[in-house]
Design a protein that fits this description.
The protein has helices at about 35-45, 105-110, and strands at about 1-10, 15-20, 65-70, 75-80, 85-90, 95. It is α+β, with helices and mostly antiparallel strands. The radius of gyration is 14 Å and the shape is globular. Strand 1 and strand 2 (about 15-20) form a beta hairpin.
Length: about 110
Amino acid sequence: MINSIHIKNFQKHKDLKLEFTDGINVITGESDAGKSAVIRALRWVLENRPSGNKFKTKGTASSTSVNVDLIIDDEEITRTKSTSKNEYFFQGVTFKAMGSAVPEPIISSTH
């Protein structure tokens, strides 16, 4: 189960933290408020999609990093992209994000 997500500098979200509960969770808001960006942030961690830099919050400095911290079943997965980093951090290990692949330990823990 997804426990929480913390999104920084990803599309509409400069700094957003959502906590989830057992059962069904609903994200609501006005049009263009960033609801779909939450789903894209989840996909960025779990599927390494979208690629490139188009998801970075507009107006942030080029050196600003994009971070998504996802806690699933009390295990934290961190995805970071900046001018010098493109990586995952999971169980004390840093994994480089290469192409469209997601590191195997992350795939294994989320399925």
